[in-house]
C-alpha cells in the first residue's frame, strides 16, 4: 500500500506550516509545506508597514534583510529564530497555487481562511489525477 502524501499549508509558509514540516520531516515523512497568500508577509516595525517578499525568496535573504533593518526588533519578536529554523528545513517559501507538480492525499491547513483558499484553488484547477484531496483545518 502506498504511503499517504501530506501537504502543510499556512498563509505565508513561514510559521505553522514550517513547524509542522520540520517536525514531520524529522520522522522521515515527505511533507512539503506551502503558503496561500499572494506574497510572504511578515510583521514590520509597525502594523502598517509589514515586510513583504515574493514566494521563492530564500529564507536566508529574508533573514539578512530583517537582520539589516532592525536586529533587536526581529530577535525580540522571534522572526530571526523562526527564519533560522526555516533555513534548516528548505531553501525558500513556496506558494500552494504555484505547485502543479506534486499530488497530495491530504492538505493540512492551519487557519480557516487558508483552508478556504486551498479548496477554492482545487476547484479552479484542471483535474489531473481524478484522486480526491482531503483538506483538513486545524
Automatic annotation (TrEMBL):
GO cellular component, one term: nucleus
Keywords per UniProt: Hydrolase, mRNA processing, Nucleus, Protein phosphatase
Enzyme class (EC, first level): hydrolase
The keyword Magnesium is annotated on this UniProt entry: no
Listed EC numbers: 3.1.3.16
Catalytic activity: O-phospho-L-seryl-[protein] + H2O = L-seryl-[protein] + phosphate; O-phospho-L-threonyl-[protein] + H2O = L-threonyl-[protein] + phosphate
GO biological-process terms attached to the record: mRNA 3'-end processing
GO molecular function: RNA polymerase II CTD heptapeptide repeat phosphatase activity
Signal peptide range: none
UniProt cross-references to InterPro entries, sorted A to Z: RNA_pol_II_suA
Intracellular or extracellular location(s): Nucleus
Family: Belongs to the SSU72 phosphatase family.
Name recorded for this polypeptide: RNA polymerase II subunit A C-terminal domain phosphatase SSU72
Species of the source: Monoraphidium neglectum
Taxonomic lineage of the native organism: Eukaryota, Viridiplantae, Chlorophyta, core chlorophytes, Chlorophyceae
Amino acid at each position: 500500500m502506498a504511503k499517504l502524501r501530506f501537504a502543510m499549508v499556512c498563509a505565508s509558509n513561514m510559521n505553522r506550516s514550517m513547524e509542522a514540516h520540520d517536525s514531520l520531516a524529522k520522522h522521515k515523512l515527505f511533507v512539503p509545506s506551502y503558503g496561500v497568500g499572494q506574497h510572504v508577509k511578515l510583521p514590520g516595525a509597525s502594523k502598517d508597514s509589514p515586510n513583504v517578499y515574493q514566494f521563492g525568496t530564500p529564507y536566508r535573504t529574508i533573514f539578512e534583510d530583517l537582520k539589516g533593518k532592525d536586529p533587536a526588533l526581529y530577535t525580540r519578536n522571534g522572526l530571526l529564530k523562526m527564519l533560522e529554523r526555516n533555513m534548516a528545513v528548505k531553501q525558500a517559501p513556496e506558494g500552494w497555487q504555484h505547485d502543479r507538480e506534486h499530488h497530495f492525499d491530504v492538505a493540512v491547513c492551519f487557519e480557516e481562511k487558508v483552508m478556504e483558499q486551498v479548496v477554492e484553488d482545487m476547484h479552479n484547477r484542471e483535474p489531473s489525477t481524478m484522486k480526491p484531496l482531503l483538506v483538513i483545518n486545524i
